[in-house]
Records
---
Amino acid sequence: MQQMWTDLDSYIDSHLIPEDERLDKVMHNTVEHGLSNHLAVAPNQGMLLQMLIQMNKCKRVLEIGTFAAYSTIWLARALPKDGYLLTIEGRESHAQVAQQNIAEANMNTHIDLKVGFAADVLKSLPSDTPAFDFIFIDADKGSYPEYLELSLNHAHSGTIIVLDNVIRAGDIINPDNQKPSIVGIRQTFEALKAHPKLLSCTALQTVGSKGHDGFAIAIVK
Ligand code: DHB
Ligand code: MG
C-alpha cells in the first residue's frame, strides 16, 4: 500500500501544493546535514497546518519540536508580517540546521528558535508572554502529555492545538508495544478525553508519503 499512498501524495502535491523554493532548500539542506526528511510533515500536511492558521487568522504560533524547521516554514508562511512564531528544539545539532534553514528561508514574520527541553523552555517563558493562537506539538512523543498541559498554560479561548504522529501505524492500540513514545501518546489520548480546558477534540488517521499516522486537533474552551 505504501507505494500507492506515496504516488497519491505526489498526485495531490502536483495539483494543489505550489512550488516553493524555500521549502525545497530546507529539504535539500536537511539531507545534506545527514537528517532524514521522513521526520518532517508531508507537503500536503504542511498545507493543512497553514490553512488552519489562515482560517483562524492566527498571529502567534508556538511549535514544540522544530526538527529541521520544514514545518516551521509552513507555519510561518501562514502568518502576517506582524505575526510571531516561537519554535523549540531539544537537540542542539538539529537546532543548528533549523536555524540555517530559517535564515535561508528569509521569512517576513518574526521567528524565534529556542534550544532546550521544551518543557523547561515553556516553564521559563516570562509570565507576561501573550497566549498563542495556534500550537503545533511535534516533539518527543513520550513528553506529549506534559507538552499538552504546558501548552494549555499558554493558550486562550479558541487556541487550536495540533498534535502530530498520534497513530504511529497503529502501534498505539498494540498492547505489546510499551515504548515510552507509544505510552506517551496513549496518555495523551487519556488527557484529551473530556479535558476540562478543551471545547472539542478529534484525531484523524492519515496515510501518504509518511506512512500511516495521524493528527489530533483540539480547540481550547
Ligand atoms: C518521527 C517523529 C515525527 O515527528 C514524525 O513526524 C515522524 C517520525 C520519529 O521519531 O520516528
Ligand atoms: Mg511529526
Note: The domain at 2-220 is CATH 3.40.50.150 (Rossmann fold).
---
Amino acid sequence: MIQSLRGMNDILSEDYERFEYFIATASTIAKRYGFHYIETPLLEETALFKRSVGESSDIVGKEMYQFIDKGENDVCLRPEGTAGVVRAFIQHKLDKKGGIHRFYYHGPMFRYERPQKGRLREFHQFGIESFGVASVYEDALMIMMVSDILTALGIGYRLKLNSLGDQHCMPAYREKLVSFIDSCGDAICGDCERRKLTNPIRVLDCKNEHCQSLYLNAPKLIDHLCEGCQSDFETLKSILDQHAIAYEIDTNLVRGLDYYSKTAFEFVSDNIGSQSAIAGGGRYDRLIEFLDGKPTPAVGFALGIERLMELIVMPESVREGYYFGAMDETAIKPILLAAEKARRNQKAVVEYKPRKLQDHLKGADRINARYCAIIGENELNQNSIWVKDLVEKNEKLIPLNEFFA
Ligand code: HAM
C-alpha cells in the first residue's frame, strides 16, 4: 500500500475544521491591521533561498527539497515564505513605487528535517511581511498581531526577544565573538567550528550542552549595540510594556535564517513538547537590496500552524442547517428537492439511503445540524415533511408547499 511520505501529513475532517478556524481567525486579524493576501508559488529558483535564507543556515545547507527540472532549472520547494514574498515585491516593482506594502499569506512549506512531534517535512505557515516602515513601532505591531492571533485562539505563550544589531554594530561584535570562540580551542563541536567560519553568531544557538556551557561567558550582542539599535530596542520594550505584553530577553536567540537584523523574536509554548517555537520573526532591512531591489526596510513573522493545532481552543460548536433523510425509496426524490431548496441559504446535507428515524436523528447529530427533516410513507400521504428542531426540541409536520414557499 502506498503511504504518504515521512513527515508529510493528510489533514482530515476534524483537524481540518481547526485548520480552517485558524486561517479564518488569523486572516481576519491581519485584515484588521490593514494587510492584504498574497499568493506566491511553492516552487522557486534555488538561488532565491541561497541568497536570502543564507548558505550558512541549516535550511539551505541541509534541508532543501532541491532538484533540476525538465528545463534544466535549479529549483526548490519553498522552505519558508519570506523569500518568495520579497521576490514578488521586487518583481512587481513595488520597491520602486515606494510607500508601505503589507501582506499576509498561508500555505505549505518544505524542509527535509528529521521528523518528530511538531517537526514535519511539509508543514503550514501563516505569515506576515511588511515593507516600507523603518520605525520600530512596526516591529511592535508585528508582535501585537501575533499576540492578538494567539489570544483569539485561546493560546498562552512566552515571548522571547533579542536584537541582532545592524551593519554598524554587528561586524565589531562578530570579531569579538570569533576571538572568544577561538579562546575555547578544540572544546567546541564540529558544527560550531563550521559556524565560526560561515556565520559565527549561530554558535550561540548550538544545541550541544557542552558548547552551551562554554558560551555562557560569550560576549553578548545586546551589550554591543550601536546607539540606533540600542534606542530602537529600548523603544520596542517600552511599547510592549505599555501594551502589557510580557517578554523575556534571550541573548542567544539568533533565529535560523540569515536575513535578520535588529529585532528578532520568537513565541514559544510550554505545552507542546520540545518543538516549542510557535511563531518567529523579526526585521530584515537588508534583504530587499540583497535580492537586487531598492533598499526598503521590512519586518515580518510566521506562525507554524501544525504546532498550534492542538493548542487551539475551538469555540463551542453551534448546530446549524438541515439534515434530510428518506424513510423509503419513494421519498428520495421529494427529499432531494427539499434539500435543494434549503441549501440556497444554509447547510443542507442529504442521506439518500432509506433508514429508520433513529438512525437519521443520529446522522443529524453527526453533522451537527439544527434540523432533522424526514419524509416517509406517512409524510408522502399527507404531502408534507416532518421537521425536528434539535435545539428547541420541538417537531412539526409542515405541508411541502409551505416548506417550498
Ligand atoms: P521560522 O522560525 O523558520 O521563520 O518558522 C516559523 C514557524 O514555522 C516556527 O516558529 C514553527 O512554528 C514553524 N516551523 C518551522 N519549521 C517547522 C517544521 N519542520 N515543522 C513544523 N513547523 C515548523 C520563518 O520561516 C520566517 N520566514 C518567518 C518570518 C517572516 N520572518 C520574517 N517574516
Note: The chain is about 35% helix and 20% strand.
